[in-house]
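hey so i finally got around to running the thing on that chain from the lab meeting. sorry it took forever, my laptop kept dying and i had to restart like 3 times. anyway pasting the input first so we r on the same page abt which one it is
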Amino acid sequence: MKKSGFIVALLIGMMVCMAGTSVAGQTVLEEILLAGEIKVSTDANYAPQSYLNDKGELEGFDISVAKEMAKRLGVKIEFITPDWDLITAGKWGKRWDVSIGSMTPTAERKQALLFTIPYYSSPAQFAIHKKNTTIKTLSDLAGKKIGIATETTNERYLQRDLKIEDVKIVYQTWKPGELKTYPTDANHIEDLSLGDGARLDAVFTSRQTLAEAIQSGCGSGCPLKMLGEPPYYEPLCFALDKSRSNSDTLLAKLNDILKEMYADGTLVKLSMRFYKTNLIPNL
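ok and heres what got predicted. didnt touch it at all, straight out
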């Protein structure tokens, strides 16, 4: 009895070790498929990309793209809404699997993150208060106080430190007087809407974010107007945590799904639905 009990215990121990080795060697894609769910980080206050509707549910272009991705992957989806700087810093510790939040694959971010092929592109855009009559061109923003969301490509651009692969960046000849950073774009848009020069002279964000804010009224009036042409266009991608081992299979699968969504017109349809224009680049 003692001998047979020892053998049984030994076999059980070996099975546990083998099982542990199998789990440890799983790819991120296998983990997600086994769990039957993918966790996606995004911004809950970034219309029309992602925002809370009247029912308290997440809605928007990024949300719809994420849901379609999960559907084609064959898993459920859970949305996580951490601060933007936590997402771009990497080392997520498996708190979420992928970021679908209109992220630009800058050289700096690539040190911590892996990126899919672009799923759409975004024009950067300045805006001023509607009552302003002195700022007529971009060069008139010299010495002005400009609001931007922190840790964004817009901030990097105004700091003259933006690097995007395959995108030629031409900086303005003028320099702002002060860059005032905010947690998200909605915050600086709200501050500018309080009055011309009250807290800000201008803001710098994406054209589609400004268009949505002006159309929706920023909640309680949004007297803003766009200024000049976009200084640059940026590709936007899904992002994965580079520090999480065995992520290559998930990256490859997401690229395959995006290619399918390009081919069948899904991305164009979603762009037209939320942006009223086609922001989908040609592959």
